Amino acid sequence: MAATIYPTVPVAQPEAEPRPTDEHSIRVDEMFARQLDTEFASGVRGLLHDPETGLSALKGEAALEAIAGAPVTLHELKERTLAQAIGPRQRSILEPMIETRLDWATGTISQLAQRATVEVDDQSVAERLAGLSQDASSSWRDRAHLRKLGRTAVNELRYQGERRGWEVAETDAKVRGGLSDLYAGAVEAAIGQDDLDGAAALYEHARPVLDPERQAAIDQRFVRAREVALCRDIDGDLSGLPLDPAAPPDLEAFQRRAAELVPEGASDTVCAGIAQVAASAHRHAERQWHRKQAEAGLAVLDWFRKNPEASFLAIPMEVRDWLAPDQWQGVESLYARGRPATDRDLFERLDRQMVHEPEAFAAVDLDRHRLSLGDADYTRFAAAQQAIAEGRIDPDLARYGRARLDADRALEAKGIDTDGPEAVSVHAEIRDELDSFEIIEGRPPNGEDIDGIVVQAVDRSVGDEVPVSVVLGEAFNPEHIFLAQAGGGGARGGGASGRGPQLPQRPSPGPGQSRPPQEVPPGLPSVIENWRRRSQPAVTPPPPDTAGPRSAAEQGAESPTEEPKAEERPKPFGAVEEALEKASPAGNEAFHYTFEVVKESILKTGLRRGSYLTTTGELSPLQAHIDLALSPNRGLPDVILRIDLNGLRAAGYEIPKPTPVARSNNMPGGGYEMRFPYPINPQFITVIK
Fold it and tell me: In terms of C-beta density within 10 A (0-12 exposed, 13-18 middle, 19 or more buried), how is residue 83 classed?
């Protein structure tokens, strides 16, 4: 055809160059046509049989939708393939090949369409029968409607058989199965609604059309349903037994009543199930009985707060009848004090259970003991229960739990009953110290603080000459006492019995640090090694002024001379060991930096065991804070006490050597301190500021 450049000027196209007719050119065209046919066949196979997107991988309606668009896709693939042919000869060779492929693809698509049609038809019939079965289950009491639903199901299945071309026997089997499923579902729905009489009547009516297998399954369901109904009736009867406020429910009474309700000829399985029902009903009645007592206690407390001037005889009788003897004691204390008071035995039992048996403690009904617990103790136990039940860690409970467990291990190691009066005293002191620690120190106690509180509480309450740090084992690290000398400040306070302990500050011990060292190299003292590991790089400190400026000259004159040594021992442990070895003994007096609020208590009761003293009494409050590495948030000391060391020596006490204060609490330290392993009586203490 001529191309038109201008409307009136046609331009002739050049004729196509004729294809060569030699044998080589013909073979090349045939080869290229076969390659194009191979590509076309690959595209057809992908369209039909791809595992993910092919027509054969699709089911039902999705397959039918894809099959509807398959001819268009095949035609486009054919045109693209023919367009790649060069010249009429390649096209004439390729086109018959493509037509052959298309004939095969068309047959395959027809088979896939038939399969998809059957799947859609089967799904439609199944959905129709499922709907009929649901209607039968909801209207099982209307037998006329059931017959109508059954006829509809039979017609659906017979029509399906005609479409599928089933044999008559196959169609009849499908019809009987569908009708059996419909009536069996209606009977099971009646059983599930606990109408066993109606279900039994329907079962007898539908038995002729039910399959034997479905009949056996329904018979088993009837047996189980009757057993469940019997147990439910017995449980309802037992739950109606009256509760006696004077005594808790008796298990034997429940068992006797259940035995009276068991029908004759009941199997062992049924009898065992009824026994379990009786036990469950008894436990439920016990919980109700205790709950009644708890509600009565709360009602009394509420009534008293509303009627503080009325006599307890005016409490409603229905409330008074449910009060247990221990609750009456709580009522007496309530009227005597005007508020609930804590029963110490009950408190100790709950306190121990809270630490040693937290799961059992979380199940305790605190309302039952409300009249025997003061407001603060009730709130404490309730908060602990809530934390345990929620599975979260309460900081106060965790600290007290650790302290109590450590104290109990220490008391057991000393051969002391952990439930005895001495243990009760130790536990009370630990609670008081933990409660007041943050108020005094300005921070929560860490692991080392808790260890120190336990040591002091046990030693002070038990009064044993053997320190608890020796027998505590894993509950307390014996390094802590010496490390306190190395890492804390002298005269740290806490000497009074009326305030929390002022413990040395250093990082909390990590996992495993509360155990004795597993192995110590020969010749290496564990105390020095632990100090080297935890403290700052060692610097040789100057010799301490052990008696203050007023006796420095005497100290120099009285210092003993060392005996000459044949051979100087090497110092493998660095400057820290040298400082310890060169530390001179304490002088005539030592000093304790503390606070005005505890001064009177110290002058009355003395300094407690484990108190710290320092060698100089001329430090300003700020300088004492720095040199003794005190905690920054504890405040500046405003009282200085002098302790008569000569008096202590004359009384037979051994005076500990001063030790250097290492860096701690971001304070450089540099001063000297002494930790006294025994209480210091007030007669040796005077106030100098």
Answer: exposed
| Mean per-residue pLDDT of the chain | 79
**280: pLDDT strictly greater than 90:** yes
State the SS3 of 451-505. HHHHHHHHHHHHCCCCCHHHHCHHHCCCHHHHHHHHHCCCCCCCCCCCCCCCCCC
Q: What are the strands of the beta sheet with 612-614, ordered from one edge?
A: 659-660, 672-675, 612-614, 589-594, 639-644, 685-687
Distance from C-alpha of 238 to C-alpha of 286, rounded to nearest angstrom: 12
User: Do 388 and 361 touch, CB atoms closer than 8 A?
Assistant: yes
Which region holds residue 59: left if phi is over 0, alpha if psi is between -120 and 50, else beta? Answer: beta
Separation CA 23–CA 192 (nearest Å): 86
What confidence tens digit (pLDDT) does each residue in 369-395 have?
999 999 999 999 999 999 999 999 999
CA 388, chain centre distance (Å): 10
The answer to whether 442 and 631 are in contact (CB under 8 A) is yes
Cα–Cα distance between 398 and 405 in angstroms, integer? 11
Tokens describing residue 420: 């005895």
- Which helix (H) or strand (E) element contains residue 659? strand 659-660
- Cα separations (Å) of 495 from 5, 408, 529, 611? 116, 24, 29, 6
Please state, in angstroms and rounded to a whole number, the distance separating the CA atoms of residues 432 and 376: 13
CB atoms within 10 A of CB 286: 14
Q: Where are the alpha helices (H) located in 240-364, listed in sequence order?
A: 251-261, 268-306, 317-320, 325-337, 344-356, 358-362
Average of pLDDT values for 267-274? 88
Handedness of CA 76, 80, 81, 87 (dihedral sign): positive
Residues 6+ apart with CB under 8 A from 605: 496, 497, 498, 682
The residue extents of the domains of the chain are 29-120, 484-515+523-551+573-689
DSSP per-residue codes, 592-612: EEE-HHHHHHHHHH-BPTT-E
Torsion of CA 393, 396, 398, 401, to 10 degrees: -140
> How far apart are the C-alpha atoms of 94 and 74, rounded to whole Å?
15
- 140 near 126, Cβ under 8 Å? no
For residues 505 and 631, is the Cβ–Cβ distance under 8 A? Answer: yes
Interatomic CA distance for residues 450 and 399, integer angstroms: 7
